[in-house]
Amino acid sequence: MNVLFSTLTLVTFFPLVGVALLLFTPKEQKDTIRWIAVGASLTTFLISLVMLAQFNPADPNMQLVVRSPWIRIGSNWNIDFYFGIDGASLLLILLTTFLTPIAIFSSWTAIEERVKEYMIFFLLLEVGMVGVFVSLDLFLFYIFWEFSLVPMYLLVGIWGGQNRMYAAIKFFLYTMAGSILMLLAILWLGINVGTFAYTDILGKVPAAAQGLLFLAFAAAFAIKVPVWPLHSWLPDAHVEAPTAGSVILAGVLLKLGTYGFLRFNLGLFPEAAKQYAPTIAVLAVIGIVYGAIVSYPQKDVKKLVAYSSVSHLGFVMLGLFALNSQGIQGAILQMINHGLSTGALFLLVGMIYERRHTRELAQFGGLWTVMPLYGTLTLIVTLSSMGLPGLNGFVGEFAILLGAWGAGQPGAAYGSYAYAAVASLGVILAAVYMLWMFQKMFLGKVENPHNNGLADLNWREVVVLVPLIIMIFWIGLYPAPFFDLMSPSVTQLVAAIQSAAVALR
Amino acid sequence: MHETSSFSLQALVPLIIFFPVAGLLINVVAGKKIGDPWAGIIASLASGSSFVIAALQFVGLTQNGFHPATIHVADWIVIGELNIPWAFQVDTLSVTMMLLVTGVGTLIHIYAIGYMKGDPRFHRFFIYLNLFIASMLILVGGNNYLMLFVGWEGVGLCSYLLIGFWYDKGAGGVGNARAGRKAFVVNRVGDFGFALAMFLIFWTTGSLTFDKVFAYFEEHGGETQHAVAPEAGIGKLLSPAQQDEEPHGESAGPTIVTIATAITLLLLVGATGKSAQIPLFVWLPDAMAGPTPVSALIHAATMVTAGIYMIVRSNVIFNLAPASQMTVAIIGASTAFLAGTIAVAQFDIKRVLAYSTISQLGFMIAAAGMGAYVAAMFHLLTHAFFKALLFLSSGSVIHGMEHGHHALAHDAEAHGGGGHDDHGGNGHNAHADESHGSAHATAHEEEHTFDPQDMRNMGGLRARMPTTFWVYFIGAVALAGVFPLAGFWSKDEILADAWKIGVTDGEWHGLVVYGLLTVAAFFTAFYMGRQVLMVFFGGERTEAAKHAHESPAVMTVPLIILAVLSVIGGAMNLPGLHWLGQWIEHTIEAHPLDFNFVVAGLSTVIALVAIGLSYLVYGQRPMTTMLDPLERLGRAFTFLNGKWYVDELYHAIIIQPFEDIGRFLAYAVDWELWHDIFHDNIIAGGFRWIANFTAWSVDKGVVDSFFDGLASLVRDWADIFRRFQTGYVRNYALAVLFGAVVVLGVFLLAR
Amino acid sequence: MVPTSYYIILSVVLFTIGVAGVLVRRNAIIIFMSVELMLNSANLAFVAFARSFQPASGAINSAAMAGQTFVFFVMAVAAAEVAVGLALIVAIFRTKHSIDVDEVHQLKG
Amino acid sequence: MSKVILSSLQLVIASGFMTLELIIFLALAVIAVAAAIAMLASSNAIYSALFLVLNFAVVSVFYLILNAPFIAMVQVTVYAGAIMVLFIFVIMLLGAERLRRPDSRLAWQQPLAIGLGLALLGVAVFGLLSRGGVAASPQPLNPEVALTFGSPREIGRQLFTGYLFPFEVTSILLLVAMVGAIVLTKDEKKRPTLKSQTSKK
Q1: Is C54 an interface residue toward D (CB < 8 Å)?
Q2: Within a domain: residue C73?
Q3: C-alpha dist (Å) from residue A323 to A92, A228, B497
Q4: How far apart are CA D128 and CA B744, in angstroms?
Q5: Which domain holds residue C60?
Q6: Among D184, D185, D191, which would you mutate to test the C interface (most chain C Cβ atoms within 10 Å of its Cβ)?
Q7: Which chain C residues are closer than 8 Å to B721 by Cβ?
Q8: Could you tell me if residue D50 is inside a domain?
Q9: Residue B730 Cα, gap to closest chain C Cα (Å)
Q10: How many domains does chain D divide into?
Q11: Could you tell me if the ipTM is greater than 0.85?
Q12: D74-131 pLDDT, tens digit each
């Protein structure tokens, strides 16, 4: 297939067309710039729909593959330009291309300074994120992985809040620190196996080497997710990032970590995954409960949502390392769900911040009376985030917890039901902090005079939120299409892990 | 799988959800425009249509010989072995519940049109009500545990929304909102148990569909001595090799009884949440903050009975686990007793009814725990009738009291005073404040304002509100269990079951249950007598009571219908006829008992004695002041009035520690220790120290000074050389020429 | 025919005059014209050598033709240079109000 | 006077020391050098330009002699015509025929420059003479070769075969030069700046 004009190349690099157009647009024409950015990202979304149409859901292997030799050094450095997707990456690409236009559109009035640079970085960020999901060459993956850092760093560092430089540098350094170990592991794999191509390495990693490699990859991904206790960068980055930055940060960038665990730690090192599953599960469960407890006393709404991410991502990790279909499929769906729900929450927080220039819970109260539509939409998103049946969060959490319980059977990944049981406490706690937030913001009397006369959502904000709300209901009521997409790949993965587990015995 | 004639009727069952959903969507889109009362009428029509569908299901079942049917709508969650559909179970049990939910629900919808009149969020109320009906029908209509769970949480959401419907009212402006949150969170604790039960069921039986789950337990029910085999295809992570190594059977592992016990105890946790049993009953009294129709519909007639429905539905599993059954029975009986005692000492008219509801739910749970599923369902139905009746009539009383107070306030205002402004809210809510500002959950917190729900403010309403009085009276007598009203028959059947287990079978817990329930029955009759006497008899104790007047027909007609049902409801399952028993028997195992004259006589006597006692206290010398005669009991009364201080206990042992831990973790551990000290000070600070050391001592001191020296050397030389840079282009050109001549000379001449 | 070296010597002489012009004159335009003169002398040398490489009979020597072709390129470059150079002079004149190259000595060390 | 010159010419030719061709060459060379020196020496830039045109014209005659008719024509049209017109135009435009400040701070450079220039001349001529081959003069071309060599047709063939890439690069160079000239001479003050825009807001 033609490397340059294949669907995957196009969906990855199309935002660059927008970047090129933006470069030639005078920076005074802010509206033109915004329309170009929205148009470029929407077109990318349309291309990703074409990709969806070309995808064959019944095939568990990598599809729409594009591969050509790229860098050759000596005989054992065989780096390819190698793109391909399976069900999991397909869904995450769709999530990325879906969220990016929304995030850009939500920046319409929020960003007035240096609009051109902002939009360019946003489109570059999209290239990086999609590139991570489509890359099947480990080296290429690493390049995109690091590349996606830079625009985000600049987005936080330039358009962020008060403490933005601190947060941006912290974000950058933490992720970077983890990536170093991954780079070493990638180089080791590439040189020893003789190829950097994922599909060629698959199944060829000697069991003896898996342990250290697993840990090296896990270091990079765990910081990104973030797995407790490596979450310290998250509240800073989230609080300081501009709204759209938070949306993408929570919606997609954190998923890079969980995706990495799924693709590499489970795929390449099944024996080690089985071995380390209980350890990861302990961290995940602590993260679930800890994140939920810590969310509750927060005074800043954005921080509350940020900590809730720690809890939600704990669920994803718990599901992934349950090493059974229910857990992994639930985890993948939960990645999508978290992107939608937490993304929507950040958007909502951003909308009130634009009006009130504060995010302190104590400053609000009774907003439902003042802004009924805003209140109702927030309620729906809040409920989705705490896993109410009929909305998206529930399907994912249920599948994850069911899988985790199954992994608690003797001889299975976790070997104890306690993990699922304690994790389920997180569902109770989610109700505690989420409803607390909702009550502090929306219920009660309007006591702060600043809150009187706030305008309800305008059409642009509604346009931003409605797609998310539709997805929230869709996944909640009829998730079958999503499960159908990922099911064959996950089944194959689980089978591979099981046979590896047998070999381990 | 069935005769064609009935198939068409059962295929209609998805419509039962469709109507309320359609109704709520119409109101979401247009509710604000069409407003009061059309939003209510649409919602009522939606609910009524569902009732028609439910009735058609009833007809359908009778036509096809009571065969259960499954109507598959769509696949929902399909992952590996997990296959959960959106599907409806049509059998006698679910149709019974559907009829109840839609029937009572429709009546309450109609009532609410009158009750909510003039509320600024009128349409939103009916959106919630329709959402509730839809959720409740999913709960009772689903053919699997997960759909049950969906409905279960869905009704929990509606409960949350409706308790906090007047979210800007209540203590401190957020009292109602807080009550709603409390209800949701406490219910989530129950849901936690329910969810774990589902996980266990799935990994044991490989399905969550009722039919398959029960078939599994029936099939393996006999193997009480063996470790149970997981259903084929489940637990695949145990590799095939390992499964061969450990053939299921005699080796270690849980037996079917152990598993069933675990499942049922976890389900019980769920039931205690939703059905407000010990230890999770605390949310229900606070839930009275919601508008009264909500209290009637959700917190008395339907939602709170979901726990009983679930236990009855899961009877196959419960039957395998005697230990669980005993636990269930004792918890139910204890709750019945505890709540009964508390109800005696409450002043808020709805709060009395709330504790009464908890108490009656205890009866049902106890019945379910004793395996008397039909009795439980019977009491569930009759209780729905008379408790909905009581709540709605209390709403009518409150409505009347408010209007009386309202009229007074207007008079006062006309005479220059403006005393009710402290009710205040912001402008457009003012009307709602005046007419409904009453829904305060905690009356004593706002003693300075007039509380239309406080029974001490009432008295003598019999003359002012005759219809309300009569239906209230019927409801009270039915609840008290007086022959021949509905409550008598259903309560008596439960007591007879307890008697059979305790006396006939000689089980100790049967005796305990019987004792507790009998005492609870005594209290029931007493507090109902107290309430009727306090509210309707004697003289008016406030001006508002003097000005109270009867409610409009849209409210009283549903009351009259419910009153009729409360009178004749007992006929559903008269001893000897056992219509209900035979009907439900098509779905679950039922074993009708003979009528026990000893029990019946005893309980009649007890009820009459209790009523007599209440007459002695309240009827002979009616209260004239705010002082309740019972307050002479002193400490005991305070203790009961304080609800055994369970809320305070929970606050001290759960909520306060949670908040403290949360704050400690968030501020001290996560922020100060982890974020500031560890990351900022140790890692970043350490790095900074090293960097500073390297920068200033090593780099600046050693390396830099060396290069500084070099640089100054260069600068000194440069001072000399710079003179050559005149800045004149032609000088440079001269230099170039000089170079060119030299180079050319070397090239051309040097050979 | 006149020996090629005569042309070369003439070319050298003209080149030297051009060099002298660059070094002696202050008027930027004259300096510029001197540069043109230098280029022209180089062209003359090219053409002369081209002629000398071409045998009297037989095929066209492409190496010889290269000399003339190169002159063409030099002219193109010269044209470009003149365009930019004169523009520079105009730009400098705008700021300095003079085309004396000695006025422009900001690079003085 | 003219008779004297003619007769001395005949004498010279007859002596075999010089051919007619050489005489024409020398005469033209003298004119070329004289024009160049006059260009260098005249204080008015306009005169300089005109002398340079003369020089170019003479050189184009040399080109004709050297069998380069195309180059000769280009020399006249492009160099003497277009380029020099441009020079004169700029001189007129700036009104800078003469420099205002006659004195120079670089007077010391003049002798040095002349000395070095003579050195250059000496080195080049000496280098040339010392290598021999000075006397070699090319044979006149055969008519058929003379028709082809240096013809526009032959130059065009060269340009579009062996030198196609440099030729295309030349076109880009000219484009760039054009853009550069426009940018350099554009009036800076009329260009809207960001500062003025933002200050308006």
Answers
A1: yes
A2: yes
A3: 20, 20, 48
A4: 11
A5: 4-96
A6: D184
A7: 109
A8: yes
A9: 6
A10: 2
A11: no
A12: 999 988 888 888 888 888 888 867 776 666 677 788 888 888 888 888 888 887 777 7
